[in-house]
Write a structure and sequence with these properties.
The structure holds three protein chains of three kinds. Chain A is an alpha/beta fold. Helices cover 43% and strands 16% of the residues of chain A. In chain A, the strands form three sheets. In chain A, strands 7-6-8-9-10-13-14 form a seven-stranded mixed β-sheet, with helices on both faces. Chain A starts with a helix and ends with a strand. Helices cover 72% and strands 2% of the residues of chain B. In chain B, helix 1 packs across helix 6, helix 1 runs antiparallel to helix 10 and helix 2 runs antiparallel to helix 3. Chain B is built from eleven helices and two strands. Chain C is an alpha/beta fold. Classes of the chains: A alpha/beta, B mainly alpha, C alpha/beta.
Chain lengths: 388, 275, 586
Amino acid sequence: MKRGWFTLLAIVGVAALAGAPAAQQAPIKVGLAAAVSGGSAASGEAIKRGLSIAIDEVNARGGLLGGRKLELVVRDDEGNPQKGVTIARELVEREKVAAVFGGLHTTVALAQVPVWHELATPYVGTWAAGTNITRNGKKPNFVFRVSANDDEVDKFLVRYAAEQLKRGKPGLLLENTAWGQSNEAGLTKWFGERGVKAVGIEKFNWNDPDMSPQLLRLKQGGADVVMLVANAPEGAQVVKSKAKVGWEVPIVSHWGISGGRFAELTGELSEGVVFVQTYSFFGRQNARGEAVLKALRDKYGVKGPEDVTAPVGTANAYDALHLVALAIEQAKSAEGARVRDALEELKAEYAGLIKSYKRPFTSEQHDALTERDYIMVVWKGGKIVPVP
Amino acid sequence: MYGLVALGYHVTWATSRTLNFSQGHVVMVGAVVAYAVHVAAGWPLVIALGVTVIASAAFGLVVERVAVRPFFRTGSPVWLLSTIALGIIVENVAMLTFGKDARAFPSTLALKPVFVLGAGVYPQELLLPVVGVALMGATQLFYHRTFYGRQLKAVAWDSEAAGLMGIDVPRAVAVAYALSAVLAGVAGVLLAPLLNVSPTMGTLIGLKAFAVAIIGGLGSAAGIVVAGFLYGLVEALVAGYVSTGAREIVGFAVVIAMLVVRPWGLGGARPARRV
Amino acid sequence: MSARAGWIAVAVAAAAVPLVTANTYYLYLAMTIGIFVVVAAGLNVLAGLTGQISLGHAGLYAIGAYTAALAATRLGLGFWTALPLAIAVTAVIGAAVALAALRLSGPYLAMVTIAFGIIVEGALVEWVALTGGPGGIFDIPKPAVGGAPLALGRYYWLVAAAAALALVLTRNLARSAWGRALVAVKSSELAAASLGLSAYRVRTAAFTVSAAFAGAGGALFAFLNGYLSPDSFTLQTSILFLLIVLFGGLGTLAGPLVGAAALVLLPEVVRQFVEYRLILYGSLLLLSVYFLPRGVVGALARPRAARPADSGTGVPSLTQDAGDSPPTAGQAGASSAVALALTGVTKAFGGVRAVAGVTLAVRGGTVHSLIGPNGAGKTTLVNLVSGFDVPDGGTIALFDEGIAGRGPAAIARRGVVRTFQTPQLFEELSVLDNVRVGAAGHRLGWLVAALAGFGGDSPATQARARAALDAVGLGDWAATSAADLPFGHRRRLEIARALAAGARVLLLDEPAAGLAPAEVEALDALLSRLRAGGLTVVLVEHHVELVMAISDRVTVLDEGRVIAEGPPAAVQRDPAVVAAYLGTSA
């Protein structure tokens, strides 16, 4: 192995490592770390759209800190925790972003938590709902979220099942992932508060074609409501399998089935499935809702609300970006630690898309959206409408 | 369900001692093509099926040409990697052209379940084994009754001798790949209404079908058919009585146990050692 | 530029990284490369040296990572205890997998390794109480030295050292008797078995080593990230490991380093094409198997120098060291005893009785020929004696010890060594190394010693290898690659290898087939000399002149039966023999 290329490799390596591009001072960069390729890419794209629309608005107003434009740097975590850590370090260390918006996968977000703290960079989750992403025990906590928090969602879902539907024998049907695990804990806890024990806890894997065995076991266990934690493809198989085993039972679902495709995949079987959302583009919109829909139409050719895939991603990301923009203005700096401090003590009230945010974060509460902000919606004729 | 795809492994293995490790991706290609013709372009299902058969066959030929022929009988299992590589590429191409979301493949047979003896099934699910067995039968007929089929059989028996007899062995291998791809592509169309169409739909099917082919014995069509039913049964039992999570673990543990006890498969013959 | 200087340059560059940059992104990338080098170096032992492809290394990597993480979080063990524990646990599990899997090859082996990977991944998800389930394990403490946790920049040195160590260990292994045995088993499992080397045992060892490396890599990974979840350990990860080794260069020392660097850095460089990531990966894999069958490193390596200067096609002289007797074992006083005794040996294939009750005694220190028409059962008999087939009935005794039914490697270790009709050389090894594999046989020493660099042959073994090579007149060809050896010499090499393996009884299966007349004469001379040295030779041959010239006794087989036996001249006149030969030719 007498190869001169070893030297070459060494030289190139050292040069590449030493020659990091000097950070440009003009724009303020913000990062997006999410899966924008692979199976969940559509949801990553939804987040990217929400951020881009909000950034366009901020830049149209003249940018931040006296004219500095915002610039979005997108990195793909491929749904892989190790890749997530790599891009987290890259966004901060090489791209010098002021803040990072977060992705879809709870495991990736959890793997990144130590990195944000090590590098003192605020992270705002826009999708992954795992409870312990924000409740991570770190002080000061650099992880924020404008999205659902499983614990809060579960409290909301349990209350709906118990108080609106008056059901007392829930069966849990969860995807076999970190997200499902997080909700298993939450649902068990909040049902427990009401003295209710789940009659069964069933799981399924991604791309499973048939959930009949799980449903049958829940049925035999005497469940009178199914609490579902699934994404659209598997959620669709659940309702199909439910029809197959001939079981009339209400389904109360986490938000994973919100994608427009759920209706396409299930046809009329989607009718009547209720689930939680942070926001719905169906029905009457506030001014921001109109603006976002218009931007989606102009920029991305989205025809209407039924064409918005993964709407919560867009809505959460949109509000998250505006909150961070306000924090940067308040901190008068794009420096990570100061932006973090400003986020915890945001003074300006922000009339956002999902709600009006007044002091959204405190040192104790890093979730901007809580149970009170969620809405219950239902599939009706292929559209999502608020539950009456 | 796995039997049909697994049979595709057998067809090429018997002929060339190679196989397409990305057979699952051919299932996906079949479903995606059928979706494009039937759902997106709105043509009748029969035409879609025809186009799928042609497209799958063409894809099989491409696999053979690009990933197998260069390494044919070099003795090294490089074809294993090159076919995996091709599968990865095809998956990405499907993502770019078809999109990443799962889409519904409407079928009148998968709208409403029917109830047989109190258990509900979608008619489509009943169709699967019927068409599957019919296709397996057709494959056997092809082998025994047609000129090409007999050539394939001859090559499967002893490729050197077949070559000396004037049979074009490379062409026979190519035909085997086309046939194998057609089996998988048709399986894709059949599965589409049940599984929905997506670029990643075939991966697990391909893997499990491979497990079935291994259990059944790559050289034995009958063994594969039996193994296909057995594997489905074991999966259903584990999912039904133990837990769904354990299904994959148990399924693949059975595969390993099988191979330790009977390395040449259920229906295969113990290979003679050649000195 | 010498290899040494190249390695020093790489080492210096790698060591300099934390000094040049404090940017943790670059450090993290470099450490990822380092960890992949450790895993890939191990996989390279398996895939490169023994030619076994594993698509389940992510499972082993996972076991290492989780063992280390659990040791650190549950048991409160430090890095320095957790790391060896992870290596040990992974090695043990790897050995168990190997015992189950390595009788298989090709797609069957691929299936078992894939299945193993999936089972491990499934277990990580399902066994929530132990592994934390899909959510994984948090807050793995940073490794500490002297009580103080290591910062990323410091931990880097550790990872870099581990990667360097991994490369050094695999280099040592490749150069040891074990390394040659691994390559030998890959080249020809049959020939290895004929020399007493059990392919199964050797491969199991390789898989275990490879598992230990994967475990070490996993443990380093766990401490690097401080967080583990099952989705880091999928089939994709296994494919990535294999791709690293293939792309870098299967069986080359620098392959894992080049492959890991390329596959970690490439995605970072071409990030704007993220949508095409899989196409890129697939194409890379496809192109590397197409155009770089030996990887980047292999493609850059210069071809090895081949023949000796005076090679030509001449027959090597056998007279050069006629003073020394060839190195054979157990010859003393053997000439009168019966070396090999067959009693009523039968073997049927399907309905065909290939060997139908053969009784035969081969005296020590003689050349005993087996002749007969095609299909008479000669080769089958050789297979039965050498253990490659198991007789249906009868006994076979070597110096009064029953050997029927034992495996070929076990029989070879007792001193019955065979050659093959088509010479089975270890094509990837040099001529000398071929003989050294024979000389070492199953005595490979401690695997750990081989890794540590103490796996060289003993002086006695080396001397025996040299002597065997000289005995057949191939001394000048020692450095030639076996693949480049002319046909006639290939048979000599096989014989030399058998001699080095300590043959007491040498079974030669048609050694004269395809030889030129001059070469046959040389063979005759060689066999005479070996007999003079006390060796017992069983010769299966069609070449009648050779048989008649050299044999002490001749046994004639037809349709699985002995039809005549005696001194050559007597057998030649035997009417039954004449009939058998005329019968077949009519």
